[in-house]
Amino acid sequence: MLPFVLAPPLDLFRFDLTRNHFFLLGMDWTLGLDPFLSGEIGPGQAAFNLITRGFLPLALVVGGLLWTAWRYGRLYCGWLCPHFSVVETINRLMIRAGGKPSVWEKNPLPERQPDGSRLTPDSRYWPLTWLAALFYAFLWALSLLTYLLPPFEIYHNLLHASLTPNQSRFLAVGTLLLFIEFMFARHLFCRFGCAVGLFQSLA
Fold first, then answer.
1. CA 167 to CA 150: how far, in whole Å?
2. What is the pTM of this model?
């Protein structure tokens, strides 16, 4: 979760809409086409820049992901995916609240657990479950926004209650949609909505 949240403010990886290019490990990551548009380089150099800065890195990332999944299984899901940590947290809270890891499960888990402990659902955990889902939804919406706009501008506007209308709408709609997903469809997203998970399954 922390790498997902901290990557934009540390400029480890994000796409800045104001500058129209990526940041990677603190450096500007462009396709190198601006010199071509200004007439400083020819088509050959522009094509070389596009291949080495665009297609080649993408192929290495996708190829590395597929090879890792083929060799070691769904390693990304268990160790790197920020969604997985949210799923596990809400699962545990739902089990404590209602005895089931999802609202769609027909039957609760057995009272006697494999480790010998007893599972006793407590409805007092439901408010905490809802608050946790709402907190993670807002944190994710905020983090996603910082992947697109300068992070410190977003944090400054949020702390000073000066978000622009578009920023406010993004946070409101994003929080609502993510809250619904975290509460009711988080397992379905992992199975059918995650492109990384799909590629790993294919491998």
1. 12
2. 0.83
